Amino acid sequence: APGLLAPSTNVAQAVADARALAAAAADLDALTAAIAAFDGCPLKTQGATQAVVWRGNPDAPVMIVGEGPGADEDRQGRPFVGKAGRLLDRMIDAAGLTGRVFITNTVFWRPPGNRTPTVEEQAACAPFVERAIQLVKPRFLLLVGGASAKFMLKQDQGILSLRGRWLEWRSSDQALAVPAMPTLHPAFLLRQPAAKKNAWIDMLTLAERLDRPEREP
Ligand code: URA
Question: What's the mean pLDDT in 113-131?
Answer without folding.
Answer: 98
